[in-house]
Specification:
Blueprint lengths: L6 E2 L2 E2 L3 E6 L3 E6 L15 H25 L3 E2 L2 E2 L8 E3 L2 H18 L1 H8 L3 E6 L2 E5 L3 H10 L1 H11 L5 E5 L6 H7 L1 H9 L21 H12 L7 E5 L6 H14 L4 E5 H14 L4 H8 L3 E5 L8 H16 L3 E6 L11 H8 L2 E4 L5 H18 L7 H10 L4 H17 L7 H7 L1 H9 L4 H11 L4 H4 L6 H17 L4 H7 L5 H17 L1 H16 L2
Parallel strand pairs: 9-10, 11-14, 11-15, 12-13, 13-14
Antiparallel strand pairs: 1-2, 3-4, 5-6, 7-8, 8-9
Length: about 550
């Protein structure tokens, strides 16, 4: 029962409200709001009256929560054990409900990408002497949450649940055994009743499939994870999407954390959103600067996402300078090298040109086979009995000239085929039927001379018109010969037709360019690798 609080001529009256609780009797709780408005003859407007009624209603709800909290003995997930020296109980109904409300607010504050990666998997486990214990899914997530979220989470939780004193984010093994057992009792029962879901692939060095196309990046990532790469404070790894950049960055982060180093892992989009939020909403970017410049190792994936954002690029440039000045390291990943990042600031481009750079190319046939074996083994651990015939995997590795991510999609198709067939080993014929559209896409796609010209011109940072100029300058003649060589190898056009497509050259000129580039590639491994890379780019060009 709550006594009514009066509102008179624009003045708040300090009143006492009595909360009656059947279990604890009467408790006098005074109103928190004591702001007074000077006496005035100004009439009470509807707006002022509405605000006053709203404040009174909110205060009554707060008083009711405080009164109910005094005698709360039964909490969500279990009961408190009386007589313990250190009282331990699972998170109360108020805390659980408060966390649900806070999560909705954190989505808008941190953005959907950050929320989905780090806050959504967070689990409220228990309350230990007034401290709420949360369980993080990984060590990297724990570091990110403690650096960026824990203070805001605590402040927002206390707004809904005043009993909250402190927020603590731990890993599974760091939570006290008795608390974990009490809090997870019902969860464990549910796990025994339901089959264990498939776990995502652990992004570590042990699960990374290395080969000639990624060996350089793989080796440098291991050096950075071990902390021996301080001679190159900035490292940029670039490749087409799906070639393993994110896997290597996560593996380096896991290794560095295991060795006791302070690591901050974020995407370019998160860097952009956090900086803009600090700059425009809070009008103070000092907290953001402290966060990104504090770790020993800063890792930014999809760094190309900040290209074209002038203020964000300037902050990234300053962060790189400050972090490397005091002995830290920075690892970046992007879809292109420094010259291929459109919209990148000149100062930042020059900084990245002076960094250690590793390129990951699309996998060759042996590496594609290795990736397929790893993915089949991964799915077999979650789906007992799943298997694919070796000749089917050989066929996929030979005919699908794609990235590791696309190979993973192919294995998922085979898993669906295996389940539909009732658990029978996926044969060569079944794999060909299941992947018919993917295999046909690569086999039936017609490559034209114009497509080859477009990709070669882009590779050498020139226009198609420049490529077709009739000049003997080496900077144009060599790329033109490369384009003629690839046109002979990858298209069905005749030599005279190719000559016409290149501006009316005689067929003997096309033959000379073809034979010249073929001979050079036999003696120059760098040119051979360059030709293979351009050919792969032609095949994946839409």
């Amino acid at each position: 029962m709550l006594n009514r609080t009066s509102f008179r001529c624009g003045k708040w009256l300090k009143r006492k409200e009595t909360v009656i609780d059947g279990a604890c009797g009467r408790a006098q709780i005074s109103l928190v709001r004591r702001a007074r408005l000077a006496r005035s003859t100004v009439p009470v407007t509807p707006v002022r009256k509405h605000r006053a009624e709203k404040d009174i209603r909110l205060e009554r709800e707060r008083c009711a929560r405080l009164g109910a909290a005094k005698n709360r003995n039964v909490l969500s997930g279990g009961c408190m054990e009386q007589g313990e020296e250190a009282r331990r109980d699972t998170a109360g109904v108020g805390a659980a409900r408060a966390f649900e409300l806070v999560q909705k607010e954190l989505v808008s504050e941190y953005g959907a990408d950050f929320y989905g990666s780090y806050i959504s998997p967070l689990r409220l486990v228990a309350e230990l002497n007034g401290v709420l214990l949360f369980r993080a899914g990984s060590r990297i997530a724990k570091e990110r949450l403690n650096q960026q979220v824990v203070d805001r989470l605590g402040a927002r939780m206390r707004a809904y649940e005043p009993r909250v004193q402190k927020i603590q984010i731990l890993l599974e093994h760091e939570i006290p055994a008795d608390v974990r057992a009490l809090a997870d009792a019902r969860i464990e029962e549910a796990r025994q009743a339901d089959p264990e879901p498939a776990r995502p692939l652990e992004l570590t060095f042990e699960t990374f499939a290395d080969g000639p196309s990624n060996f350089h990046a793989y080796t440098v990532a291991q050096m950075i994870g071990a902390g021996v790469g301080v001679t190159f404070p900035v490292w940029l790894v670039h490749s087409p999407p799906g070639c393993g950049k994110t896997h290597l960055l996560n593996a380096a982060a896991h290794e560095a954390i295991a060795r006791g180093r302070k690591v901050l892992f974020m995407t370019g989009q998160e860097f952009l959103e956090c900086f803009q939020s600090a700059l425009h909403k809070k009008r103070d970017s000092s907290s953001f600067k402290e966060m990104v410049r504090a770790p020993d190792l800063l890792i930014i994936d999809d760094f190309h996402r900040i290209c074209g954002k002038r203020a964000t690029q300037e902050e990234a440039f300053d962060t790189i300078n400050e972090l490397t000045r005091r002995g830290g390291q920075i690892a970046l990943a992007a879809n292109h090298g420094p010259d291929g990042l459109e919209g990148l600031d000149d100062a930042l481009k020059a900084k990245l040109k002076g960094a250690a750079v590793s390129e990951i190319a699309e996998p060759d046939a042996p590496l594609r086979r290795k990736i397929l074996d790893a993915r089949v083994a991964h799915h077999a651990r979650a789906n007992s009995g799943f298997s694919v015939a070796p000749e089917a995997l050989d066929m996929i590795a030979d005919r699908m000239h794609v990235t590791g991510r696309e190979l993973d999609g192919a294995v998922c198709q085979l898993l669906i085929e295996w389940k539909i067939s009732g658990g029978i080993t996926v044969t060569l014929e079944a794999a060909a039927n299941a992947l018919q559209s993917k295999l046909a896409e690569g086999a039936e796609r017609r490559i034209t001379v114009q497509l080859v010209q477009k990709v070669v011109a882009r590779h050498y940072n020139m226009s198609v018109q420049q490529l077709l100029e009739r000049t003997r300058r080496h900077s144009i003649a060599r790329p033109r010969q490369v384009a003629m060589y690839l046109a002979c190898k990858m298209t069905h056009a005749s030599l005279p037709d190719i000559g016409q497509r290149f501006g009316g050259f005689d067929h003997t000129t096309i033959m000379y360019a073809r034979d010249r580039i073929a001979a050079l590639s036999e003696t120059d491994p760098n040119l051979k690798a360059e030709l293979e890379g351009i050919a792969r780019a032609v095949r994946r060009e839409p």
